[in-house]
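Researcher: I need the complex structure. Ligand is zinc ion. Inputs:
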Amino acid sequence: MTPFAPDAFDPAGARRTRPGRLRWWWCLMGWLCALGGGPAPALAGARALVDMVKSPEARMYQPDLGDAHWTGGLWGGRAAVCRDAMIPTMWALFQDENREGDWTNFLAAAGKAETFDGRRLDGRHHGPPFSDGDFFKWFEAVAQMYASTHDPQLDALMDRIIPVVAAAQRPDGYLFTEATLAARAGGPAGREFGDPGHFETYNLGHLMTAACVHYRATGKTALLDVARKAAGFLETFYRQASPALARSAICPSHYMGLIELYRTTGDAQYLALARRLIELRDQVPDGTDQNQDRVPFTAMTGAVGHAVRANYLYAGVADLVAETGDPARWATLQQIARDVYERKLYLTGETGALYDGASPDGSADHAAIGLVAQAYGRDYQLPNLTAYNESCATVGYVLWTWRMLALTGDARYADLVERSLYNGVLAGVSLDGTRFFYTNPLRKLHDFAWPLRWSRDRQENIPESFCCPPNLVRTIAEAQDYIYGLAPGALWVNLYGASTLDTAWSDGARIKLHQETDYPWSGAVRLVVDAAPDRPFALRLRIPGWSRPGATTVRVNGEPAAGTPQPGTYFELARPWRAGDVVELDIRFQPELIEAGPLVEDTLNQAAVRNGPIVYCLESNDLPAGVRLEDVALPLAAGGDRFTMSRRRIAGADLAVLTGPGLVLPRGRPEPDGLYREVDSAPPRPITLTLIPYYAWDNRGDTEMSVWLPVR
Ligand SMILES: [Zn+2]
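Model: Output:
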């Protein structure tokens, strides 16, 4: 493998010349260098968010960071809020004198007596042990935003932060601010990775990913050097480690982190280490479903346990498969993926239904059953009022399903990426970008007062666990990286939204185009080619799986394209392209009533309204005075097509609401205990309903809300 040659990286020059990234070129150069004994070639390419350009099993790779941009519409608005509110507000929060932890832990561990703005530090660790990793997620968002904006202030900020992180690292590469500060205070020196609750590998994994993104965005290696030292420590440590220590892989971001480090540096030891750590899981004694290590990976048949841990593991295994093949793990991974989207996925693209439960629940092997929390439930167990749906699990699901898309080219996975991004991820953040959900229920009723661990409203600060907010912020900052995919001779359009693309294939051929569209409020997408290579390529347009057969037309330069677009596939236009060519994709859709299959008890006889990719909900402040949300139903005779769309602003965000017929059900005579009541056969009272996108709820005070409504 190729040693890393940082000096050869020149972002400006590379952007001009687009060094070749073809696999054959790579192999040839390596072979020539090996033959001649000369220096290995400088690393070329490797500037995408997830860089699969040389991954042998990947069917597509992402354009480089900064090559795709939202230019308006829903995502343009969210990206602007990310730039102007999410990132700076979080940085201000990290420095707030009432919020020690995250950033101040790094300052203290680096031996600093004061914060950047001159406030004295007490030298102690604050917050949970995983706050190091949460800080790195925010840093990754900054690096991605820098790649998008080239704002020199962001670059300067990162340049101030990185030396502090580097100074907080032990000379041997170990980096865990809680341990460093405890040791400095004369406390007991705990054994590295001895306590799974310390989340050290989670912290280090996020360091590695943030460092790769920072390097790819800036060409600077300062944080990459810190990450390589940390990975070196892991490598040395796990040479001797017993399988029991694999238990420290809690929310294992480090499989993704190590493999991305391999992709960035070409150093095969990181890939080998990731593989060894994933294999080590199979030998964990007394493992649990909670941590996905009760049985070896290839013995698993479905998604179990803590959903963030699960989705991070599955994404990491997908990365391993992309690099090494590994047919046995790949078969299992596909089976688990199917288990989730067929039986355990919310309509809103969220996962991890349970606050607390048991797994394998109901098993005849009683001894095998263990407690699970923040977890995937049984098949079809999808409660709404108590849905856990941690925002981090939704982020993990995007990370995982995008990798499945890259490995398969199967449009189904692009549908899943869209479903989670356009509904679940966006729902995690308030429209003004300052408040965050830890858990994401699909229904909230004030009368349901069962005590739950996390707030039912978005919070600016979640001191007990700030894992979700920066995870959401980095994902929103990075959403444009998922729009397009590249492959030899092909350009995949995975997501729709007003955007531009200015990029090059790995052989240097350039493509520039833009999308003019109001998607997701309309399915009319105009793709305009602004510059094209002088050889033909296949433009692959995703025809959403949620669209109806026959509802989509494609025209090229005004002429109908040959072939029939099929929902759930890519529609391919293979031809020579010239600047000025126009592709008009029209996915005609209207609001639809959606129901779950009969095995989902929590939504029996209920429906949700979906318009294109956007799932809608009813929020109580859109109801007439005196009408309680729990009494509202949808008239079956109405159908979704009686809902009409109109534009509205909520909390400064432009979006589309739906207006249509609803019913107020009469309340029956309650029995003495109040739990049951006799059905009142009086006719329901018609009202007009206004539904808003699910992602936009909880922006107008303490409301009641429901995605699912009874159908009468
Ligand atoms: Zn979280």
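Model: Summary of the prediction. The radius of gyration is 25 Å.
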